[in-house]
Amino acid sequence: MLLQIKDLKKHYTYKKGILGSQKGLIKSLDGVTLSIEQGETFSVVGESGSGKTTLSKTILKLIEPTDGTIIFDGEDITHADEKKMRQLRTNMQIVFQDPYGSLDPKWTIQRSLEEPLRTHMKSLSQQEMKQRVEHVLSVVGLNPEHAKRFPHELSGGQRQRVVIARALISEPRFIVLDEPVSALDVSIQAQILNLLKQLQKQLSLTYLFVSHDLSVVRYISDRVGVMYLGKMIEIAKTEELFQDPKHPYTKALLSAIPEINANNRKERIVLSGEIPSPRNPPAGCPFHTRCPLRKPECSKVVPEWTSISENHQVACHLFNQQKGE
Amino acid sequence: MTNLLTIKQLAIEFSSPTGPVRVIENVNLTLEAGETLGIVGESGSGKSVTASSIMRLLPKDLAEISDGDIQLKGQSIVKLSDSEFRKIRGSKISMIFQEPMTALNPVFKIGSQISEMILQHRKKSKKEAKAEVINLLREVGISAPEQIVNSYPHQLSGGMRQRIMIAMAIAGDPEVLIADEPTTALDVTIQAQVLELLKKIQRERGMSIILITHDFGVVAELCDRVCVMYAGQIVEQGKVSTIFNNPRHPYTQGLLKSIPQFVNPSEELYTIKGQVPAPNQFPKGCRFAPRCPMKMEICELEEPEMIELKEGIACKCHLYRGETD
Questions:
Q1: Is B215:A212 a contact under the CB 8 Å cutoff?
Q2: ipTM higher than 0.90?
Q3: In chain A, what residues touch B266 (CB-CB under 8 Å)?
Q4: Domain residues of chain A, as ranges?
């Protein structure tokens, strides 16, 4: 087990009322529990506002959690200070969606890639740094020649390779990939997905992959967690989740994927309405306002996390009851 | 069926410091009454430029139609004066965009923005227009239209804004709707709602739709025919089911193979080597030749013709020389 998080919460307060004297609470992350094995790709899917990005940033402590525990490699890092985190971040890296926004436009690729080394490995000589940069560029399929260029001189796909190279240069074990291919065209997306898979094998990396694109998730993940309004609502092995989803939201989400092959087209469950505002979340099950299978207790009681099988958990009253019978 | 919209030999030039650059060349397409035509391609393929040129929305002084013709029911619309064209835009052809927030005016209420469209194009009194707005909002699936007319765009969610855009676009009762990436900015369950809405409106109003997208799944769900664009040209067109089951052009084949949806997770994704060339660097001969796995000697010398193949497919590729139907 490389990463374990228990009942992780991130709540924001905001001012409300005419004079801003009252305080409201936004539960961006509301009690998420999961664990990721060494060498595994765990994907988090969900729509805008589901809390998937908050989750990934809180795990790396780019955002301070409000409550809960984060255990990385057997060590509780929930309350680790900035100095300790800087050390830990050689092992935990992140790649964001927009490669252009992640690179300083005034820096050469060489300088951008050296930056993590200057922070984390101060003992390296100039020569060693140069070698490392050259090596990591070849690992992601670029030439040493690219080190001299500026971000605007590269294509979108090349820039994303540079960002991946920068995440790799401190030789981490765990990388958060937050929508790493969403801004890319499909032919470039395929190159980056292949690269990520190949790197994982080569360097035995562990990935937390955050995405809204379900066909990409199906291709790259070992296990998948589905989030809705700050809560994890279902976790299963990838194929099991796609073949046999349990939660009504997961079912609707999967049926909404536009299907290219007409023979594979399933009946679409079109949900009414949209994700409720996190400022005013529904009581009980967060999904009950849109759920086609809603029962009376759904609007009152928060459903418990229930195991369907060893690798499949769901938070839904439909399954709570089954267990009790 | 009759040809509603015909594009003949269209070429579009953008001015640049080094002289005019031809970004679109030799584009021919027809839109029949009641059909949905998809235009797919990667960034820079020219799909949005083609669509904007139909609506006369190319940036003035920067881009112009340098060759060819666009006809609506046999009448050329390229040479119309601006005031004559204004009678067509909105009432015969209208358009919706990817990001509805930028297409709506932030300082006017929803109701007045839609009724402006009605007053502009149809002989109605203000009172009649007001009633019509409510009807339109109901038609696009907004449940409390009486309240929504008094709200501002920023108070609505992305899905609602796209519904408002659609209501505005159909307010003038057009025969052609151009939808430029209408669901790209939306979450997948909201995308499903908007796609269902577009299908419903088309069915009930008998409208024709041109759908521009990079998402093959959306094309498969919504379109009857599809044009695949590459580097400013159409390289293949025909019935959606025929092209997706049996793509002929090596570019279409490559694109479809690089989509994760079709691939077993244990296999590598297919990638098209290299990248889309910039408009001032379009190669001689076939523009796809430098990236084509089936390149022949002739491909870099001579531009292929659009060849009519069996099953109503047309393909711009030397592989099919002499194989006409």
A1: no
A2: no
A3: none
A4: 3-91+172-324, 105-171
